[in-house]
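CORE FACILITY INTAKE
Project code: CF-77B
Contact: R.S. (postdoc)
Sample description: multi-component assembly, two entities in total
Requested service: structural model of the whole complex
Turnaround: standard
Below are the sequence entries exactly as provided by the requester. Do not edit them.
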Amino acid sequence: MISTVIVIGGGQAGAQAVDTLRREGFAGRLVLICEEPELPYQRPPLSKKYLAGELAADRLLFRHQSFYEGHRIELKLDTRVARLHLGSRQVELVDGEKIGYDRLILCLGAGSRRLTCPGADLAGVRYLRGLTDADAMRAALKPGARVVVIGGGYIGLETAATCRKLGCDVTVLEMADRVMNRVVSPAVSQFFAADHLAHGIHLNCDTLVTRIEGNGAVERVIRADGSYHAADVVVVGVGAVPNTSLASDAGLRCDNGIVVDEYCRTSDPNVFAAGDCTNHPSPRYDRRVRLESVDNAFEQGKAAAMNLLDKATIHDRVPWFWSDQFDSKLLIVGLSQDHDRQVLRGDPATRSFSVCYLKDRELIAVETINHSKDYMAARKLIAERALMDLDKLPDPNVPLKEAV
Amino acid sequence: MPRIFFSEPSGARRQTNASVGITLMETALEHGVQGIVAQCGGACACATCHIYVAPAWFDKLPAREEMEEGMLECAWEPRDNSRLSCQINVTADMDGLEVTVPQRQGDS
């Protein structure tokens, strides 16, 4: 008999887990513990429309207060968990309160990877993870403000584009030889690099930052070659690390994320986990993955809730990701690792094209720029493990779904 | 407040009093309309807020843009009157709008 379920974490996975538990008929005590003071909200707009001031904070909420009241979900906002007691099945809060559970779902998310160089702790060095970060950053983004973005990944480039729209003078420093090098093909990197340059962003690849200087607050960012960039604001977007310490301290198995099986079960039978914090098997790709993805968090949160209620649900998704930068939309589906061939569909100069990744002719991933048709077709083809026709595939006039 | 009517997959018809300025998708979520998933939160990236607009209303709404067209083409059972509800901003003249939520959301 399950009488109490506690969900820790109010991101996509946690919000989806409590929603699913109630939708599927769980009638017991349901507690959702969130570190932040706000009702659970969506993070993707924080670097985009919200930072740009185009979306009010209440439009970020997954659900309004009345939903939680109506579904008897006990919200503990602005609440930190000190430790988990797996043996006695209790969650201990930092104020010492202990709450007993029958089942626990950990949706701990990922945090920003911190910069460690000298000066990284100066005022004005900012990360973008939560609403508070976005609000603080927004206040500093006056027209003409000199913004130096360290890291040319999703967060760095999205934030750079938004800062530029707000009239800031923006410089991006990327360590690798091209932007978003870990997640997209060279053709896509090139497209976005050109777009950022065309919008007046100073983009520097192959650039290592060695320290940040300033008298109390950031004044300049120093590069390995000794040159520097004057800065009023420094935005750091150098990746994310899974929040696992709560789990590992309690003795749950962790290895680049909380280790779970395809049913979202951790190494403790009463504890499930979902979202960015998990290392989970991908049946489609036949290997373990850890994903930073809205879709994964959403679906895994749902699957964890189903499995907790003994409604066996295997978490098996083809992952997808998106990014908005200026007026272009990047939609990615699948995981491209281990491909043996890349095929370009369409001409990047038209601002609408795709890059397909194949392994033994099987479609395993597709990156699309302003091309939702290829993206939607690819979601289906990748899930079906479709074998592509190599003559038709490069022809953008042949619909992707017919290039099999 | 324009009244917007959602027919849910179960057949139930739900009346909502929508706020002008937010999207049809947000209206549906706020009122707990069944069958609207809206995974990406309105970024036109997931095709899980798909609706069918009553034919009499279809031409009165702002037209689909190319990205929305592409998303819908491979959505579950697209029709001529398909829309993504995240791409429609509620306006005062939508009083009486009738939409139907498909049996499923996402890929075909």
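Facility notes:
- Strands of chain B lie at 3-7, 13-17, 50-53, 82-84, 97-100.
- Chain B touches chain A at residues 22, 26, 29-30, 32, 39-41, 43-47, 66-71, 73-75, 107-108 (CB under 8 Å).
Invoice: internal transfer
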